[in-house]
């Protein structure tokens, strides 16, 4: 996110770490910086201050955040820290006592207060124009749309509710107005994110809010349906298998919402799921998945799992592998359990799984899933798929099918004689598949 430097505008260097949710926070801060007349730059040297938006989810992410703060202190010295790690300021102050300010996640106003205090701006509303849809850190043809913040669940391995608090949903009208502006500005794909997308609106008691000439309820189904009428690809992330999720499958079958669900199942053994305190009815998920596929045969499911959770036995792990074989998910990520500081799972009194066992289970899990994913990809050879172009190339462009989200899933490499542009949605005949990606020609 760099703009042309100008002599009299103060410059702020920005580092954005962490998940898509943190990226949305970064976009909001950058939009505000630009609105108040600050230049945003990538280079710490020569900047008037640095903002580091940190991630504190895993200890490895904390280490990366501390490294980024260290680099900013060394190269610049005027550093403001925000984001998830800002919720635990002691750790940062201990290592970097001269930090200018530390604020927690979503503390846009406090971050701006710290910036204004450190570097006053020469704000001129006539030259400091910000595009109406805000500043996006993602390529222009796709954008993340955050519908709520925080989480009412208390999964025992997760400290997000401690960091970000309970669920706070945005009114449906607000979300839809933002989505509409993004689409009007050229965004072709909206990625709906939150901590728990299917819980959307619970805190608002599903209140209605105005959007154009009608009222829209703050409900997962209603919002998905309205988003689906905007003419962009709508992709749902972080959905839990609550019963009402079944309602959106017809929207997928009708082409209003992408036939894609990102559901972090995390495990399959009832005993482990119970110890994790996972939300949703996770026990009959195989049956649910079967029904979803009956309604929408093209449905792609992506998920994440944790192996080596405290107390996970060989039987639990075998159950997980069997479940994986039955569920046949399209894309899967796995993590080896990390005892995040502050997580309840550390105090459950369950035995830790030794690192070498975690490693073996992780490898077995990935091998099993790779074979499943490869088979699913192989079945796509010979089909025609709609593909959105992310990176155009002279003869081969890189894009994604409806089954693939940016950054986390696979790609489709498209050979074409005519030039393609980012955001083009084209029809592609798939010619071959490798372990993660598809290759085809413009149909
Ligand atoms: S649903 Fe569970 S894992 Fe996800 S943010 Fe909430 S507590 Fe954390």
Your description of this structure?
It is a single chain. This protein has 12 helices and 20 strands. The protein has 443 residues and is α/β, with parallel strands linked by helices. The strands form 6 sheets. A 5-stranded parallel β-sheet has the order 2-1-3-4-5, sandwiched between helices. Strands 16-17-18-20-19 form a 5-stranded mixed beta barrel. The protein has a 3-stranded parallel β-sheet with strand order 6-9-12, with helices on both faces. Strand 16 (384-391) and strand 17 (396-401) form a beta hairpin. The two termini are 35 Å apart. Bound molecules: iron/sulfur cluster.
Keywords:
alpha/beta; five-stranded parallel β-sheet; five-stranded mixed barrel; 12 helices; 22% strand; disordered N terminus; binds iron/sulfur cluster
- The helix fraction, in percent, is 25-40%
Radius of gyration: 23 Å
Give the CA-based shape.
globular
Which strand-content bin applies to the residues?
15-25%
Number of beta strands:
20
Q: Overall mean pLDDT score?
A: 89
Bound molecules: iron/sulfur cluster
**Cross-sheet strand order for the largest sheet:** 2-1-3-4-5
Topology, please?
Elements: E1 11-16, H1 20-35, E2 39-41, E3 49-54, H2 59-75, E4 79-83, H3 89-95, E5 101-102, H4 108-118, E6 142-146, E7 148-149, H5 160-164, E8 168-169, H6 172-184, E9 189-193, E10 208-211, E11 214-217, H7 220-228, E12 233-236, H8 249-253, E13 260-262, H9 270-276, H10 285-295, E14 300-307, H11 314-327, E15 331-336, H12 355-378, E16 384-391, E17 396-401, E18 412-415, E19 425-433, E20 438-442
Parallel strand pairs: 1-2, 1-3, 3-4, 4-5, 6-9, 9-12, 13-14, 14-15, 18-20
Antiparallel strand pairs: 7-8, 10-11, 16-17, 16-19, 17-18, 19-20
